[in-house]
Amino acid sequence: MVKKKNPTIYNVADRAQVSIATVSRVLSNSQKVRPETREKVLRTIQEMEYHPNQAARKLAYQTTGTIGLIFPDISGPYYSMVISGVDQEADRHEHSLLIYGTRGKPTAHDRFLPMLSSKVDGFIIMTRTVDEGQLLNLHRQGIQFVLLGQRYDSFDCDSVMLDNRAGAYQAVLHLLGHGHRRIAFIGGPEDSHAHQERFDGYQAALRHAGLNLEPELVVKGNFLYEGGRMAAQQLLSLANPPTAVFSGNDEMAIGVIDVAKQMNVPVPEKLAVVGFDDIQMALYTQPSLTTIRQPMKRLGEVATQLLLYRLKEREAPIRHEVFSGELIVRRSCGCSSE
Amino acid sequence: MVKKKNPTIYNVADRAQVSIATVSRVLSNSQKVRPETREKVLRTIQEMEYHPNQAARKLAYQTTGTIGLIFPDISGPYYSMVISGVDQEADRHEHSLLIYGTRGKPTAHDRFLPMLSSKVDGFIIMTRTVDEGQLLNLHRQGIQFVLLGQRYDSFDCDSVMLDNRAGAYQAVLHLLGHGHRRIAFIGGPEDSHAHQERFDGYQAALRHAGLNLEPELVVKGNFLYEGGRMAAQQLLSLANPPTAVFSGNDEMAIGVIDVAKQMNVPVPEKLAVVGFDDIQMALYTQPSLTTIRQPMKRLGEVATQLLLYRLKEREAPIRHEVFSGELIVRRSCGCSSE
DNA sequence: CTTCACCATGTAAGCCCTTACATTAAGTAT
DNA sequence: ATACTTAATGTAAGGGCTTACATGGTGAAG
Fold it and tell me: Chains A, B: CB contacts under 8 A, how many?
């Protein structure tokens, strides 16, 4: 098998007996070309299986047609869903998608961000490890981006968010409605925007019910299954354990349910559990998990739209899209539905 | 905020009072540069926050430093895990990752493949929708690739696979060991390589036990939860239903368990279930799911290594990495362990 | 039949790098 | 001191594309 050198625009021009400018024009549809000429060129392109070199195109055109996505870790159910939305929407607009999982190594950013920057037109940023300074830098370089699931005080830019606070509030309210008074909260990483807002909502709901925050009922988690387990062990070992748990996300909530079972604490009878996200798994746990649904795929889609729009209209006003979470009532909260 | 034009290698050269060649050399570390000169250049680069333009680099260098990944759909647990492995390994080798989910639209390939081709050095291909002809084309254009989870007869190239047949054989053997004689099989899409091999293994195990294939016990699925549910409904409605099910993957197996519960068929007492993949969820079902574990992340890593190696050594002999599945015994098969 | 306008197409510069080759300066051997 | 090697650096030619500007040819208007 011989490696065939790819044809260039020159080869096409030669064969079609026109200039490269004409070929370029039919390619980009930018200016009028006589129909027959266009035909001829198109035919030649077909014949030679010519495909424009994207690197050269980008160099001349100053645009890549690809967007970058930066996130912590793809393997979780939440991120993979969001990414799926981004992927789909990018494709719909004929853009490619470059992804980078930070896997919690913030130090690497200095190296990879500039690296990626010249490969993409803009970024969707889903991680807190890119800090405000770096964003500012990107901005100065003319790289556009939108933030997904977070926002910074000092730096205003397009963003897509879920109203975590309202969602959490709703969740806790539901538990209060079941009559619970000792409702625990399992958080995520302290620096997580989602964590902070959900904790806020939790507190607001308690206040609304005239309850005080009990420090022993607030435990730190990590948004992972194991973290949920550890938190549950801690909570259920309390002299006066909670009767309900609002978990910062579903993965941890599942950990809680499993530990409760092992410790012979029936869910929801002795311990009601509500999660957050509505990952696929939430439907299949025993009992099925009551939770706040995030439109994950939609978040990805909208972030992509925002970015692509900004790429077109650099001076457009900044937009913040905020979605509401939806309470999905299943069985883990004590409702008997389903 | 003013958009600052990015500095080019010329600007750096000017400021550092050297030629662009020298700058390029310190950048690529390719040839000797006097230490003090190097210092000066490096300092200037720092000061100006210069970052080489990747497009230009690629154009000159004829390489992108990015690899492409083509898969059906990222949102499932299997693919997101594999992709995570690819992402990690690519990063380790300072390569970027361009992803494209086909979402089962084979027709689009003609458009996107050439498009992507010029943005990457090579591909990892996880989907059957890129056919042999297209692979041949890529190959002729000098684009390298490795196949993950599949292989073609007419076209030999690097590949990474799981030994699906042996895995399935092992799974069914385990059920036979429990004394089951009516063991159903739920398959995936007919054109899926994984499906075919797993079905093969199933049949081989039956033969080994001197059993005949019962057509009514073989039902078609789609590797999704809902497909598992439908298959289970069909199987459990049989006049003489199976006492065990080997499901082509875990997602369907979970569907089977749920339907069995709803139909008051206790698992594993009246219906033993074994899955395939060992997705995260498999651990959390009730009862927990016995399955064949695939080292998903590892598959992604190895595929990446293979590709990067081939990019370096175009003439190296073709390699096929085959991994073995591992039987993970949990409770859905009737073993009481755990 | 000339002149102008305009449409279709061509020419060439530029996008930002890498690298083969050319050049200069310094060091070594005689 | 001279001729020659070698190390450090510069010059310039691509790499494949877009696009401003130049050119040529056609039809309309006079």
Answer: 152
